[in-house]
Design a protein that fits this description.
The protein is mostly beta strands. The protein has 2 helices and 79 strands. Strands 15-18-21-24-28-32-35-38-41-43-45-47-49 form a 13-stranded parallel beta sheet.
Length: about 950
């Protein structure tokens, strides 16, 4: 991959010309004209990941939108943006336009759209244009973001909103040339905040490896919603048995569960072409993922299914595909990671991981595992975590952005992590905790990385004895020699919402016990740190050696000493220390620094204070990104809830900040349209100070009402503007509960029991209702009349009568005089045949199989393929997951019908379970005869039983020393 840096979209000459000549002659402006360009994580040759894209920040491009930021305060939209600034497009036709300097055929856009009131997110599109011409609608969503409250967070709107941004990717359909202009343009309705665009020249698809097995040959379904987990599992099992690679062709495959790999290569056509996605529709703790086998007593302490046991897996290669999950919440116990389990002597190469819980949570013990050349984006928790006894393993040349927790982590939980390394990675904007961290471990290396834009409760690099079972009792505490070398920490560290002080860009913590290891920090650059550059806290720390270190720009101190520390400093150079004092220490003689040589400049041990209070950050770093260099307003958009005409909303606020070095004159402050304001800004705003503008909304008519807040000033960055939007109503506000109905599978021609939808008028005026209707295979009856009083509710009862098999959809529609009419409820159900085979295509597990004869063959609908267990190893079992608990009263067992299969008898017991843990008998062990003359079929009938899982246990076979079965069919009657 070719090294690419972020484009400097405005040259010095261009900026000077614009500042001198004004902007009246151009339709779009660039933030670089009035604010220093924030340094990019890609500005440091030889450090960080070599990436295949060229990144352009929205605020450095031409735009007619509102630049927001700079702002590093958690819960504010700009704070999560790369470089702490972005551009909000709040009106139809507003755009950000990027000019390519290299050919590109694809783009990834990082953006944010608002959440909805239910916390489930909303969808919209942007107009993607090239050289002015529409290319396609770019889909955007907020369903994967917007978390609230404190750890472990919730999707329900409330306090501490965060995780605002997401990413979408698309190919243009042709290769654009350098100089072409790509525009992201709002179509109105939903505000869109654009952070950046990554432009890429995606290579042609990788060819299928010679002699490989294709997942399609095992029944995998491309570009559909059919679950292909069993087909993938059969393919990788066959690949291992035959010593062949397994090929994922171009296309998108749906997987509802883990594919467990061992001794096999799973390869695709490239991460832009071969995509795995999906989540189980009812068992939400299951989703797409490629997992190694778990180690008994290892890092994973949950239930282990038979096919997941016996780890670690060995000699696995995963390469050239993408795993795009469907995870929208954080539930730490759910195994919904892109990659997991335990893998020894294994490699992950060029895999794109997005929208899963964790990119790769590896539960050891395991050894010699590498992730390289990969991208990990938009996770609800960590990017990578080496958990419990991971040794001699590595993450290298990997790009991580927007992880919900630590970007790259090692956690020595009960078993030591030893001799691991994180090197040449770029880790940007973790939403919680640290960019890179090791919790315990021995002889760990963190080298040649770039980390930037930490948000809260963490720093850029963290070395610590923290978290459960990291201590010397287990031998998991920090020990040996740790190498932290040649890293760049950019805008790293931030506030901790639990502690009343900031976190250092690099910090050391002996929470579970004092640190007693050699930690060498060498050839490292700290740039524009949000608070202190280095922090020591909780428990004594020894010994840390700083050598050839550059510290340029801190929000507060150079060193924040809150615990006893033994450290040496050689050639440590400091400049632009925001607090004006080098060190804050109140630990007295427990602070044991030693200065070596004459190269320590810009600071001194004598420049130490103990104030008892923590100063607000003072950003004086000249490289950009510390402040916008003038006036700025946040947020750039106020969106008001629907309001009855003539009534006044509660106030929302815009904070105006002067990031300049001198006082900014303030002229008029005005709000247009149906908006009014009050403010605390006065006629002058001191350098570093902020004022507040409070805005209220009083609609004069129904429908969308827009306006603009303007704070006039001749200072750099002025005037400050914010877009205002709200909806006026006539006092009618209808809602439905629930907002969708999903019906159980139903035999074609039969009618389901009714499900109820409650329609409520939450407004202050009577609603006039039109004709309620249900489309598709759905019908409705209702108690709703022609009007619905304010505060009243009525009920609509919906039934489902499928007219054909398969997924059936419809819409319940309630028209009214509500400004948002009609109120709609999505309807769905599945039509089935009169007595379907409940087992066909369902996931299976087995105690063993021989060669390619895996258990998936027993539910593939083909009597000529079969499952065969290991020889001479009775008893053997096969288990099928029917998806949900259903009534079963008959099963049919088949062997291949060919006459070559001589007559034989097999002894089989049938058990069942609702939870896959507790199984009870359905039919005791019985001998069944399979005779080709009568179809090689045995039928087992029993009183109807309601089970989700069926298990067949074979204890004898007169024709072969193994269990054999070509089809397991299960029926209600």
């Amino acid at each position: 991959m070719k090294k690419s840096g972020r484009l400097r979209a405005w040259t010095f000459a261009t900026t000077v010309a614009l500042l001198a000549g004004g902007l009246a002659s151009v339709s779009g402006t660039a933030a670089a004209a009035t604010a220093a360009r924030a340094e990019s994580p890609f500005d440091f040759p030889g450090r960080g990941a070599t990436v295949p894209f060229t990144e352009i920040e929205a605020e450095d491009a031409v735009s007619t939108g509102q630049v927001i930021g700079s702002d590093r305060i958690y819960t504010r939209l700009p704070s999560e943006a790369s470089g702490r600034r972005a551009v909000t497009l709040s009106g139809s036709g507003q755009y950000v336009e990027f000019t390519l300097t290299k050919p590109a055929n694809a783009v990834t856009v990082r953006y944010s759209v608002p959440d909805n009131s239910a916390g489930t997110g909303q969808n919209t599109t942007a107009d993607l244009r090239v050289n002015g011409a529409h290319v396609k609608d770019l889909p955007l969503t907020s369903r994967y973001g917007w978390f609230y409250g404190s750890y472990p967070f919730t999707n329900t709107p409330g306090d501490k909103p965060h995780h605002f941004y997401d990413e979408t990717r698309t190919m243009f359909g042709s290769t654009l040339a350098a100089g072409d202009k790509v525009r992201i343009q709002s179509t109105g309705g939903v505000a869109i905040t654009v952070d950046l665009a990554d432009f890429e020249l995606v290579p042609n698809p990788v060819a299928r490896p010679t002699g490989s097995l294709s997942v399609d040959d095992f029944g995998a379904v491309r570009n559909g919603t059919t679950d292909s987990t069993a087909a993938f599992q059969a393919a990788v099992d066959a690949g291992k048995a035959q010593g062949k690679a397994v090929w994922i062709p171009e296309g998108t495959y749906t997987l509802w569960d883990h594919v467990v790999v061992d001794g096999v290569t799973l390869a695709g056509a490239g991460p832009w072409y071969s995509v795995l996605t999906g989540r189980h529709p009812t068992d939400r703790k299951r989703g797409v993922g490629i997992y190694g086998k778990y180690v008994s007593g290892g890092g994973y302490t949950g239930a282990i299914r038979p096919h997941e046991a016996g780890g670690p897996s060995r000699n696995v290669t995963l390469k050239d595909f993408a795993i795009m999950g469907e995870i929208t919440e954080r539930v730490d116990d759910d195994q919904v990671n892109a990659i997991g389990g335990a893998m020894t002597d294994s490699v992950v190469d060029n895999v794109w991981m997005q929208h899963t819980k964790v990119g790769a949570w590896m539960d050891g013990p395991m050894d010699n595992f590498t992730i390289k050349n990969s991208r990990i984006l938009d996770q609800t928790a960590d990017g990578v975590n080496f958990h419990t006894g991971v040794t001699n393993s590595r993450v290298t040349n990997t790009f991580v952005r927007n992880s919900g927790d630590d970007g790259l982590a090692m956690w020595a939980d009960r078993v030591p992590n030893v001799n691991n390394s994180f090197d040449h990675n770029t880790v940007v904007a973790p939403i919680l905790a640290n960019n890179i961290v090791t919790y315990g471990g021995r002889d760990i290396s963190i080298t040649d990385n770039v980390v930037s834009d930490t948000l809260t409760n963490g720093g850029g690099i963290h070395v610590a004895n923290r978290y459960p079972n990291v201590n010397s009792t287990y031998g998991t505490a920090l020990a040996g020699t740790h190498t932290v070398a040649r890293n760049t920490l950019l805008r790293a560290g931030n506030a901790d919402y639990n502690w009343d002080f900031g976190i250092g860009a690099m910090w050391f913590d002996g929470e579970t016990e004092p640190i007693n290891a050699t930690i060498n920090v060498t050839d490292t650059d700290f740039l524009d740190s949000s608070y202190s550059a280095v922090q020591f806290i909780q428990g004594n720390t020894k010994t840390i050696n700083f050598n050839n270190v550059k510290i340029d720009g801190t929000g507060t101190y150079m060193l924040q000493v809150q615990s006893g520390t033994t450290a040496t400093f050689t050639n440590v150079r400091a400049d632009h220390i925001g607090a004006g004092v080098s060190i804050h220490s109140c630990v007295g003689g427990a602070w044991l620094p030693q200065l070596i040589g004459t190269g320590n400049t810009g600071w001194s041990l004598g420049s130490t204070v103990c104030t008892g209070t923590w100063p607000a950050p003072n950003y004086i770093y000249p490289g950009g990104g510390g402040s916008p260099g003038g006036l700025s307003g946040s947020p750039g958009l106020l969106s008001f809830a629907a309001r009855e005409v003539g009534s006044t909303s509660p106030a929302q606020t815009v904070t105006v900040t002067n990031g300049g070095a001198s006082a900014a004159p303030i002229g008029s402050v005005a709000a247009t349209g149906d908006y009014a304001q009050t403010n605390t800004c006065g006629t002058s705003l001191a350098a570093g100070a902020s004022c507040t503008v409070s805005v209220t909304f009083k609609p004069t008519a129904t429908g969308t009402r827009t306006g603009t807040l303007t704070v006039a000033s001749t200072a750099p960055g002025g005037p400050v503007t914010a877009n205002l939007t709200g909806v006026g109503t006539n006092g009618v506000s209808l809602s439905a509960s629930p907002t969708s109905l999903s019906f159980a599978s139903r035999v074609v021609g039969s009618t389901s029991p009714a499900q109820a939808v409650t329609v409520t008028n939450n407004g202050t005026a009577t609603a006039n209702l039109g004709t309620v209707a249900a489309t598709g295979d759905f019908a409705q009856t209702r108690t709703c009349g022609t009007t619905l009083a304010a505060g009243a509710s009525c009920t609509v009862n919906v039934t489902f009568a499928p007219t054909s098999t398969g997924t059936r959809t419809g819409t319940l529609s309630v028209p009214s005089n509500d400004a948002n009419s009609p109120l709609t409820v999505a309807l769905s159900g599945t039509g089935t045949s009169a007595n379907p085979n409940l087992a066909q295509g369902r996931p299976t597990t087995e105690t063993s199989h021989t060669q390619t004869y895996s258990s998936g063959n027993a539910v593939d609908g083909n009597a000529n393929t079969y499952w065969e267990s290991a020889n001479n190893a009775f008893p053997q079992s096969l288990t099928v997951d029917l998806g949900s608990a259903v009534d079963v009263s008959r099963i049919v067992l088949k062997l291949p019908p060919a006459t070559a299969w001589a007559t034989r008898s097999q002894t089989v017991a049938v058990t069942g379970s609702t939870d896959n843990e507790t199984y009870t008998s359905i039919v005791a062990a019985t001998s069944y005869t399979f005779n080709p003359a009568t179809g090689n079929t045995a039928t087992v009938t029993f009183p109807a039983t309601n089970r989700r899982y069926l298990r067949l246990t074979f204890s004898a076979n007169t024709g072969w020393p193994a269990a054999q079965l070509s089809e397991l069919e299960a029926y209600t009657s």
